[in-house]
Amino acid sequence: MQHQQIIWLSGAGSGIGRGLAVALLRKGHRLALTGRREAPLEELRQEVEPGEEERVLVLPADVSIPSTLEIAYTRLKDTWGVPDMVIANAGTHQHTELDRLTFSESRAIIDVNLLGAIRMLTLPLQGMADRGSGTLVGVASLAGYRGLPAAAAYGASKAGLINFLESLRFDAEPRGIRVQIVNPGFVKTPLTDQNPFEMPMLISVEQAVAALMNGLEKGRDEIHFPTRFSRIMKLLRILPYPLYKRLIRKITQGGAR
Ligand SMILES: NC(=O)c1ccc[n+]([C@@H]2O[C@H](COP(=O)([O-])OP(=O)(O)OC[C@H]3O[C@@H](n4cnc5c(N)ncnc54)[C@H](OP(=O)(O)O)[C@@H]3O)[C@@H](O)[C@H]2O)c1
Hints:
The protein is an alpha/beta fold.
């Protein structure tokens, strides 16, 4: 990552997004920050030296409401031009066992995690293609590799995002646009704090951000972490169904936590 990039980041108000925003600001980049709540985005101005506040542009928007995202992008473009990098990180999660699985809840998750990311990543696409440069980053999940218990809609949203980005990469790279996929394991954030089970190989936001920054700087196609966990998930991905089912049931104690 060259110095002083213009980066548009969603979900910057908490968790991984907040940690990433702080790390990117410390590297000297200019950041446009999006999320529904304005206050935690405004707080990030305190992370820059006095007098450098103009390196932070606060663009509140709900990624599930196209008009708010379009307004945010127009403000970004009018202020700084087409960004160098867009990181679609905003996301939501709901541990959903069978009795709570409904269409409307599933749609709400997919609307934010999959459609919200697609909305955000496609806004600067033409501008980047015309310029012949740019980086599009989507924060998916290791839960997008394969179906897991109590995660039907969340898993589908992340699997969809991984596939969207993998496909987009073939079309975008010849036009000078890099596409990077981020697949985290369990990271301690407000999103996972509500999980009613013990999370294997849970890492801190600081650890996640270190892995993310390293992967972004190296331009990796896929940034996955923690590697001990992601390697296991990669192995599980290629197992035949009967074995995969047995193993996951065993690990998750029957599959209905
Ligand atoms: N933590 C993990 O273990 C883990 C693992 C794999 C993948 N991930 C992914 O990593 C990303 C960040 O998650 P996190 O763990 O850091 O969770 P988090 O702390 O809950 O952060 C999610 C952020 O997304 C924003 N957001 C939620 N819905 C939004 C919407 N409709 N429009 C705009 N912004 C919205 C929230 O801000 P507002 O409420 O202000 O909008 C919040 O700042 C998510 O995509 C998540 O799926 C996390």
